[in-house]
UniProtKB/TrEMBL annotation:
This is Lipoprotein. Gene3D superfamilies: Bordetella uptake gene, domain 1, Periplasmic binding protein-like II. Residues 1-33 form the signal peptide. Keywords: Lipoprotein, Signal. It comes from Bordetella ansorpii. CDD domains: PBP2_Bug27 (cd13578). The keyword Lipoprotein applies. Pfam families: TctC (PF03401). Belongs to the UPF0065 (bug) family. It comes from the Bacteria. Coiled coil: none annotated.
Length: 332
């Protein structure tokens, strides 16, 4: 039996501690080496919606610019379904090495948390935010032939039986929740009519089958200019850059009505900090590019004043959870 003297014990403890620290450092070496070498191959940017959607267009603008900055291609891959949840969950479960990122939205990283009873991912705990790309208000539009000239007319019609109806691109979407918030502000009867696609909803608004809807500026502006739709207000606290003469709903209702759609890029939560920094720097360089900003502006995006991305994300989850609860929207 070997005995250890009291004088030898401190030396042994220091040796064991040194071995533990060395083992921990060795365990980190592969990740450190990988971060230093990042990116050594193409990066995949997941778009959790279909090709041609606003999220897809924004992602492709950013992917092209970031690829030039990083010296590697950033390939956009569409993984649509379940309100963006399928593609978003794919990224949450991907290796945290920076090679798989996602173009997140107000839907995937705020609304879905409360909307889906069994959401497979957590928008806060499972992701590291990379960059706030931009935000866009939605416009409240009616048919070009509608008798409604302003929100006062809309509210008066809602107050008379049988009330009016509003369309959206689906239950629990930002357009649906904006309609529910307007109903709370104006009162009266406003029946929600969900559609599978926003274009179908917009078509029925133009024909007058449904009285109004909230939708993105890029989709409705051509129809407003053609006289097929009429805009009655914008959902953000400040006026839309696309229609600066159009009053906000907050102005017209003397309330705190302020809802915007936004885009933010994310990586899996455990991605090494050096890798996150490279991705964030590439995004910042892209957003500082005048050509990139022109392309994003053409999609109706406006710059946000978001500095603390983590705090912003948490606040958005809480805000939209309250709206989802009040609307009664729920998806299994």
């Amino acid at each position: 039996m070997v005995s250890i003297t009291s004088t030898a014990r401190p030396t042994l403890r220091r040796s064991l501690l040194g071995l533990a620290l060395a083992a921990g450092l060795l365990a980190q070496l592969p990740a450190m080496a990988q971060s230093a070498d990042f990116p050594s191959r193409p990066i995949k940017m997941i778009v959790p919606f279909g090709p041609g959607t606003s999220t897809d267009i924004v992602a492709r603008v950013m992917a092209d610019a970031m690829g030039k900055s990083l010296g590697q291609s950033v390939i956009v891959e569409n993984r649509a379904g379940a309100g963006g949840s399928i593609g978003t969950d794919f990224v949450a479960r991907s290796p945290a090495d920076g090679y798989t990122i996602v173009m997140g939205t107000v839907g995937t990283h705020a609304i879905n948390k409360a909307l889906y009873r069994k959401l497979a991912y957590d928008p806060i705990a499972d992701f590291a935010p990379l960059s706030f790309v931009g935000q866009t208000p939605t416009l409240l539009v009616v048919s070009g032939n509608s008798p409604f000239q302003n929100l006062k007319d809309l509210g008066a019609a809602a107050a008379k039986p049988p009330g009016i109806s509003f369309a959206s691109a689906g239950s629990g979407t930002s357009g649906h929740l904006a309609g529910e918030l307007l109903k709370a502000r104006l009162g009266g009867e406003m029946v929600h009519v969900p559609y599978k696609e926003g274009s179908l909803a917009m078509s029925d608004v133009m024909s007058g089958q449904v009285q109004f809807m909230f939708y993105h500026p890029t989709a409705v502006l051509p129809h407003i200019r053609a006289g097929k739709l009429r805009a009655l207000g914008t959902s953000s606290a400040k006026r839309s850059a696309a229609l600066p003469d159009l009053p906000t709903i907050a102005e017209q209702t003397n309330s705190d009505f302020d809802l915007v759609a936004w885009f933010m890029m994310y990586a899996p939560k455990a991605t090494p900090e050096p890798t996150l920094k490279k991705l964030r720097d590439a995004a910042s360089t892209a957003l500082a590019n005048a050509d990139v900003q022109a392309k994003l502006t053409a999609q109706g995006l406006e710059k946000g004043s978001t500095s603390d991305l983590d705090a912003f994300g948490k606040a958005e989850v809480a805000k939209w959870a309250d709206l989802v609860q009040k609307s009664g929207a729920q998806v299994d």
